[in-house]
Protein 1
Amino acid sequence: MKTTPSIPASTPLETSPRIAGSETPRIRLSLAITLLGLLIFAIGAKPDWFNLDRSPVVGFVQIAVFLLGLAIICMGGYIGLLTLWWGYERTIISDIGARLIGTGYVFAVFSGMADIFGMGSQPPPQVPYFGPWQASGVLIGQGVIALGFLLLIPFHAHRSSRK
């Protein structure tokens, strides 16, 4: 009887063996990157907390800075959660989570920069306006990012390591 090889239902990456303590530097790096992103995000979102507020309105630079901070937060979280998968085969759910992180960020960028891209309420020659529609879009994007991070958590990996 001829058997067909089974096709794994996950990312086609070879897993390397788990070495005790090898993930610690990567997790520390991801935490440092995430905290740096949080600082940049806070400077962009609330510059008056750092005595950097130059304008009463939210302008292009402020939007760009907090979106840059959000990108760095996403990158740091992604690195950290992928490190927890080290030595295990990733599942389809984790792949969906990784794609949701990127999709949520793209949604947040296009919502935040809607006026700059010419899709917002203000035409391009006007000063960009970060209004309630743009803020709602950025919040929805951040929610999708959070859902992606939740799906990327390796719950089964911790259960199997207790045996």
Protein 2
Amino acid sequence: MGGIGSLLRGALAHPLTRGADLDDPKTTALRREIIKSKPFLKKIYDEWYATLAHDLPAGEGRVLELGSGAGYLREFVPDVITSEVFTCAGIDVVLDGQRMALPDDSLRAIVMTDVFHHLPNVRLFFGEATRTVREGGVVAMIEPWVSRWSRLIYTKLHHEPFRPEAQQWEFPPSGPLSGANGALPYIVFERDRAIFEREFPQWRIEKVEPFMPLRYLLSGGVSMRSLAPGFSYGAIRAMESLTGGAGAMFAHIVVRKRRAGRDADKIGG
């Protein structure tokens, strides 16, 4: 099956990124072009960004996006601070989420799309998030998820490492984008939830919603050709809604920083 998966990846590879170095900033710029040029995929990102914008709490503090290079969240959150781990077009600051040169309690939210699973040490990230996000603020993300279906797709057809069996949250750092464990969000917020809650009592896991078993696969993502035309998006989305999250390839996750003396308040409060 591994050989078949390699053949399929080769046959379906997007011509703009075929053989591209994942850690080259030029590849990130190409991915932004790909997202904008594929109607089905762009609808997915529009939906993701609208979801993250809805997660943002009101009140003081800026919104920081990690891994902004290939995206366009600013169209949904105009005052967002965009960042990337290397210099590239369209970002405000070069920043590592594990070491953030930002003032204490200066953020109302940190948001990310397909970034958390690239953090070699999520404990360092949450240490920094605890310092920089104000009480009542959130960390919100759209990330890969673990299901029987997604295990098959991510291990056979995807280029990134996907290791649900990993016992450690950390993985050896390599390139900024090539280093990853796609199963990390599931490991931290589902399998090892009790560990997270014990180590980071300042945070409450408010939402974990697995979703999207088919649409991203059919879109081809940023590395493969699209398998579905843009006009089919609504029908496929409606069909997915009948699955109730079964076979999910992604999850919408929101973690809120507790207020002193209170548990937490609702999103948007």
Protein 3
Amino acid sequence: MAAEHLLLLPGMMCDERLWGPQAEALPQAITHADTTSADNFDDMARAVLAEAPERFALAGLSMGGILAFEIWRQAPERVTHMALLDTNPHAEKPERQATRLEQIHTALAGGLRELATESLKPLYLAESNRDDEELLDTILDMALDLGPEVFRRQSLALRDRVDSVPTLLTIHCPTLVLCGSEDRLCPPAYHELMAERIPDARLAIVADCGHLSTLEQPGRVTHELETLLAS
């Protein structure tokens, strides 16, 4: 049965612009989840579920995928389909936890633009997209519009997240697992693991694409979501 409603979960320091091409193209009713108010995934998921329709398909990119795991743990009966894009099922590594605190300090001290700019080209985008000024401006604008307090809250949530690998075997709805072939933050190996563990999963690795697949290869991502939602 095709999904009637699609709940979209953005990545860290992203908003509905991350899903713009898909929201415009897909026929489903769309809800863009607000992921800005909580500093942990438990509360973030509860807030999203409180505003969500009774039953929905779920798509999350990066931090949004991590949030999707928590939504599944809290309310699996409400999720009809799941799309996990450019995300990470593992808990945060200790060295990365320390880096998060340093970055929070930098952001609160006025360095959010510097943080966002330093990571844009080398970490977020495929090589062929690193000189796309419109794309770079969109990513930077999302981060600056959300601001340092949202950066702090989302960083803490990511720092303290639980390991979602044990959750993978419990996901029993049709699931798309997708990533860019050049995603350095959440590499293809993470997605191969997820597709292997989730019983009804389909893996899609997108060429010429980095971490922000919805914007880097919007047509391919939309097609893969259409295929999932029609199942």
